[in-house]
Amino acid sequence: xxxxxxxAALAAAAVLTLSGCTDSxxxxxxxxxxxxxxxxxxxxxRVAALPIAETGALWGAMAEGIFVDYNLEVxxxxxxxxxxxxxxxxxxxxxxxxxxPFGPIRADLQDLGVVIIGDxxxxxxxxxxxxxxxSLGDSGIESPADLAGKRVSVNSLGAxxxxxxxxxVEDAGGDPAxxxxxxxxxxxxxxxxxxxxIDAAWVPDPFMxxxxxxxxxxxxxxxxxxxxxxELLTSIxxxxxxxSDPDLIADYSAAMAEALxxxxxxxxxxxxxxxxxxxxxxxxxxGITLPVFTSEISVENIQELAGLAVGYGxxxxxxxYDRLIQQQ
Length: 328
What we know:
Blueprint: E1 3-6, H1 13-16, E2 21-22, E3 43-49, H2 56-64, E4 72-78, H3 82-91, E5 96-99, H4 102-109, E6 114-122, E7 131-135, E8 151-154, H5 160-171, E9 180-183, H6 189-194, E10 200-204, H7 207-213, E11 217-220, H8 222-226, E12 231-238, H9 239-244, H10 246-265, H11 267-278, H12 282-286, E13 292-293, H13 299-311, H14 321-324
Parallel strand pairs: 1-9, 3-4, 3-5, 8-9, 8-10
Antiparallel strand pairs: 2-4, 5-12, 6-12, 6-13, 7-10, 7-11
Helix pairs in contact: 2-10, 2-11, 3-4
């Protein structure tokens, strides 16, 4: 049986850059010709997001004033993983979480009323992907099969990271049941590797590039090896909020669709937002591999991911996809 360990590894300085971030000072890039919101009133919406490069699309769109055009003032609050944001959604502390689809999958199995309302970012189908399992240069871990019997960190246990890693290891001839998964926040992964507390780490950029740049190995791009183009992050809310405030959800969804279209067409703007909000050098941001930004979710990809999770015993059953995924 594979083992899951919880490490006391909380996001540090990179997470703090998210705290209290709002677009209240953002000016629209151009004055809208008409009110694009449903209500006409400025509303604050709290959105949980990870301190990773993909959030550059959200930060950049906020700076462009895209959400203000929809009379939305976005407050970004820190998150370590989509599953960890579910309690905050259910309590009403946040209205939206941008996270992996696995948190909502688990929540649906418990009939908690959590809904995926749109995509946000996908992995790349070929070439260098946006996340990878990495190891130190002298670790001897260079291929997926080498991960068998090793301690591998993920930011959230029992989610897409470990499911796709297990599939990649199995496909390479290794025994995925022997992997020991450890929960470590992305910003802490390099320190945990160097301390010898883990053997390999699953991380996105900029952490992937930082570890590789320090002489580390790219072991495998697990999403690409398993389900090319898999959803990295999705927009998540509750059925209760959709029912009680449909205008808010409609305006957020429309604003986010525009934001992601902007991000897909403005890589320089996304990278500039990463530099500003994550405090990394411009040259480092220039080397980051960006995902495919899109608001349209692939139900087939989510079904394949959940099916793999059932096969590995990560979850007991597949969710009700019609209830779980309600594209806005």
